[in-house]
Design goal:
Elements (H helix, E strand, L loop, with lengths): L15 E3 L2 E6 L9 E7 L6 E2 L4 E9 L4 E4 L2 E4 L5 E4 L5 E4 L2 E8 L8 E2 L2
């Protein structure tokens, strides 16, 4: 590959399980990269989780009626094209089925995914 750019076709990346449902992650394995981008299919019963160093930006692409995102226990109704900035330490989860684009800064690291039990 020439240049220092990368291109990913998100819906062609293998999906992996995550606390929200299934994620297709791009650029997480890029050494020194600034961020990763995830296409996430959120299941109706997403787990409450948080990150100690990741900031996440959710962009809701599709969602069920009355879908919401819970941030530190507070429910926020979302609709298509809603964007949310979730800083480190904020416990969060999606409520209701949705498809989101998730930008993770710095890039996703599984060691920084903490699920409340």
């Amino acid at each position: 590959m020439s240049g220092n750019f990368r291109i990913a076709v998100l819906d062609e990346i293998d999906a992996t399980a995550c606390p929200c449902g299934l994620a297709r992650r791009a650029f997480a394995d890029l050494p020194g990269g600034p961020a990763s981008v995830h296409l996430v299919e959120v299941r109706a019963d997403a787990a409450v989780h948080y990150h100690t160093s990741h900031t996440e930006i959710y962009v809701v692409l599709e969602c069920a009626d009355h879908a919401a995102v819970e941030l530190d226990g507070e429910r926020h109704v979302v609709r298509r094209m809603t964007a949310l900035l979730i800083p480190p330490g904020v416990r969060h989860r999606a409520l209701g089925r949705m498809k989101i684009l998730n930008v993770v800064i710095p890039p996703y690291d599984a060691a920084d995914e903490h699920v409340d039990t």
